[in-house]
Amino acid sequence: MAYRLLPVADLVINRANDRHGELENETAAIAWLFNNREAHMKALARDIFEAGEIYEPPLVSPSGERFVVFDGNRRVTCLKVLEDPRRAPNAELQESFAALKAKWNGSFPDKIMCQVESDRDRIDDILFRRHTGSQAGVGQSTWDDRMKANFVNRTGKGNAVSVADEVERRLSAAGMTPSRRKLPRSTMNRLLSSEAFRNRVGFSINRGRFEYTHQEAVVLKALQRIADDLAKRETVLGDIWDVDGKRAYLDKLEAEGLLPTARDTLVKPKPKAVPHPAPSPPAPRPSPAPTPIRRANLISRTDYGIAWPGRLQRHRAIWEELQFHLVLTEHPNAISALLRVLLELAIENYIDQTTLAVGANDKLALRALKAADDLHAKGKIDAKYLKEIKKFQHDDRLISADTLHRYIHSKDFAPSPEHLTALWDVLANLVVNCLKA
Q1: Directed axis angle between helix 120-130 and helix 145-155, to 10°?
Q2: For 87-139, where are the alpha helices, taking DSSP H only?
Q3: How far, in Å, are 24, 166, 244 from residue 321 at the CA level?
Q4: C-alpha–C-alpha distance, residues 356 and 333, integer Å
Q5: What are the DSSP calls for 259-304, one per residue?
């Protein structure tokens, strides 16, 4: 542990703070803190102004010539915005912070004492123990369930199962462990911290148990390569620190043919029927009419296996509104508009990430078809589903791009929960695959 006096200008607000998950850059992280914790930020800024200092040194880690803040992002953000109120995301906040700065007693601090840690595992251990109470915004805010999930998905800490222990046990049993080198468990846990990445390697953690989803021999070969890369330090913690880093590493293994493919998928055997003596036929009774089950939200509350990098921050916000907040029976117009936006953004993400050739004037239906063709060529979707997306261009069908267009622009064409769920059920596979690109 070391404490150093560092220039505030050299401190970088963490774009991957566990409060919000990965965002695009420092500016987006500052905006998120004010947009989602405005009252807390104002209270904290006034406390810093009245005290003339911050009491707890921020926890930072070197990154090039600057230092990324891992704990104390709110405190450092307040100092940065007090120093330059133009960094606040709206005019009202800019005026508020400028007024505080004008009343500052003495010279404004351009350096603050920081706790500097270069070991990222130690940083995670410190973070895990610190977040206990909010104190109305002046103290550290308690993590909610999503923030805790972001932490677990990023680091692998707090999982009921240690993935690294499970992997090492299986490699050892197969005589495939790295020779004369210790496997860095924390780095392995971080790489395989979420189901999206575990599934790519060919296994799952289901109800606290390790399960192969693909042929064991193929999965073990992939895990052996990962273990070798980590043990030999050819891949280190900094390489897989965020979603893009993890994805890039697994993409490299996939390009080398080391990850399992669809043909390696395990098919779960159907349970054998146990013969029973034929019962006596019951007296005929009228069957009750089945009760239809309706989703409350457009997107069902299941895990679609999407790893959310910072560049998809708006995509994720829209997804979560459609999955958790907007109710089909109460907000059909808002849902119809956001569904179209999500589809367009997802397809654009796929085009950008795969450098897929599209025309500048290609309409939504054609872009969807080109993305689907590319996904089919890569084995991500089957021919039957590709045929469904081809029909998406036809204006005479309810499940079409024209329907989404009319939801936005027609005063006479109103969306219904049934039509919206039908649309999503057709488009979900395309949207999810485009977001995973």
Answers
A1: 160
A2: 91-102, 120-130
A3: 20, 36, 24
A4: 32
A5: S--GGGBPPPPPPPPPP-PPPPPPPP-PPPPPPPP--SSSS-SS--
Q: Supply the Cα-derived Rg of the chain in whole angstroms.
A: 26
- Candidates 320, 343, 324; CA nearest to 424 is 343
The letter for the amino acid at 275 is P
Per-residue pLDDT tens, the chain, 437 aa: give them. 789 999 999 999 999 998 888 999 999 999 999 999 999 999 999 999 999 888 889 999 999 999 999 999 999 999 999 999 999 999 999 999 999 999 998 899 999 999 999 998 899 888 887 765 555 565 556 667 667 667 776 776 666 678 888 999 999 999 998 876 788 888 999 899 889 999 999 999 988 889 999 999 999 999 999 999 999 999 998 899 888 899 999 999 999 999 999 899 998 766 666 566 666 666 666 655 555 557 899 999 988 989 899 899 999 999 999 999 999 999 999 999 999 999 999 999 999 999 999 998 999 999 999 999 999 999 999 999 999 899 888 876 777 888 898 888 988 888 999 999 999 999 999 999 999 99
Contact 180, 131 (CB under 8 A): no
Q: Which residue type sits at 313?
A: Q
Please state the pTM of the whole predicted model.
0.68
Other C-beta atoms closer than 10 Å to the C-beta of 24 total 14
Residue 376 near residue 386 (C-beta atoms within 8 A):
yes
